[in-house]
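TA notes, week 10

Several of you asked for a full example with nothing omitted. So below is the full record: structure tokens for the whole chain, then the designed sequence directly under it. When grading your own attempts, check the secondary structure regions first.
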């Protein structure tokens, strides 16, 4: 049975884009999460949608029995109303809202709230350990102090396409495409370092909450996390005049793709090798791979990741539709995987 119309979007992408383009009021992009026990995730999801949609909230929110995880944008005139609505839910009272570094951006087209088995796909059996016994939260000043020590290990808990454009200097950056892949890789890498100081970080902190509890359960003794992730770390550094030890961009999962933390460009165009942190999706929708491309290569390859994709998009639309099911690009037909090293 379909849900009531007011609890889901009915507009086309074109209509949504036109509506967003017509907006003149600034928006604030933010994120939040909270682990909690939600008895009826579907009912809670519907209540959130009914409460937030009239406020003009746009974004992507996941609800599960274990809690809620959201990335969204709110019109400036309704920011206080949204905060009041959020805090009216007892377990969400005083939840920190991580305001984006580049906050005034049109980062989402519509409001999507989905019920999922978990708010982050981690592949863990939560019944085997206590997820509330998490690692120590570190503010920016504490992070910087620990990073000055030679015996501190810092681990990036994000995927390769996130860490490629920005990272804490000296961090271990696993070469994986999903969070569930990171957990066993890091455990194996640090198996003989369970007594050392380990700092983990991610975009907004949610992945490290679960990972730190898991690693403590697995025998690691000194596990800490960057409180609020890269977003909050950068804000604290700016507010307190601290050196930013995170360099480059912070990858974000919305229309902006990335927000700049420092002016450093630490990555390279996948096609010509020149410094570039411009991340784009391949213009060939049958490929759609996320990759790094400088402006010069964007012109040369018509915003495609390879010569094969460039040639494919030049075909007539009906020919593309006919051939797409029979072809593979970068080993798959869609998704954010690593592109080939040659084109």
């Amino acid at each position: 049975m379909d849900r009531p119309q007011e609890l889901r979007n009915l507009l086309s992408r074109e209509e949504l884009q036109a509506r967003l383009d017509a907006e003149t009021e600034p928006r604030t992009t933010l994120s939040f999460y909270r682990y909690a026990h939600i008895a009826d995730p579907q009912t809670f999801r519907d209540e959130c949608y009914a409460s937030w949609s009239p406020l003009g909230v746009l974004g992507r929110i996941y609800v599960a029995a274990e809690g809620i995880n959201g990335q969204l944008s709110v019109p400036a005139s309704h920011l206080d109303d949204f905060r009041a609505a959020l805090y009216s839910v007892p377990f969400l009272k005083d939840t920190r809202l991580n305001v984006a570094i580049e906050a005034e951006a049109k980062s989402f087209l519509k409001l999507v709230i989905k019920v999922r088995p978990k708010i982050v796909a981690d592949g863990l059996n939560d019944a085997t350990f206590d997820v509330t016994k998490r690692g120590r939260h570190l503010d920016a000043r504490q992070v910087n102090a620990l990073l000055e020590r030679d015996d501190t290990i810092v681990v990036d808990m994000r995927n390769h396409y996130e860490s490629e454009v920005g990272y804490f200097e000296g961090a271990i950056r696993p070469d994986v495409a999903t969070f569930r892949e990171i957990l066993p890789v890091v455990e194996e890498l640090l198996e003989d370092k369970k007594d050392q100081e380990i700092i983990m970080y991610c975009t907004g902190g949610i992945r490290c909450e679960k990972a730190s509890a898991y690693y403590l359960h697995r025998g690691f003794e000194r596990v800490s996390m960057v409180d609020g992730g890269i977003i909050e770390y950068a804000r604290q550094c700016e507010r307190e005049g601290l050196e930013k030890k995170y360099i480059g961009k912070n990858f974000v999962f919305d229309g902006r793709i990335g927000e700049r933390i420092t002016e450093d460009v630490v990555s390279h165009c996948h096609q010509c090798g020149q410094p570039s942190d411009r991340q784009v999706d391949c213009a060939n929708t049958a490929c759609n791979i996320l990759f790094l491309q400088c402006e010069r290569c964007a012109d040369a390859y018509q915003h495609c990741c390879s010569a094969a994709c460039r040639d494919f998009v030049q075909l007539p639309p009906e020919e593309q539709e006919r051939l797409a099911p029979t072809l593979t690009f970068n080993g798959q037909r869609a998704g954010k995987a690593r592109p080939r090293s040659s084109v």
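The CA atoms of residues 38 and 264 lie 42 Å apart. Use that as a sanity check on your answer.
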